[in-house]
Amino acid sequence: MADDKRKLTEKELKRKDCFEKISSEMQQKGYKMKNVVINTQKQSILLF
Question: Which one of 5, 19, 37, 41 is separated from 47 by 20 to 30 angstroms, measured CA to CA?
Answer without folding.
Answer: 19
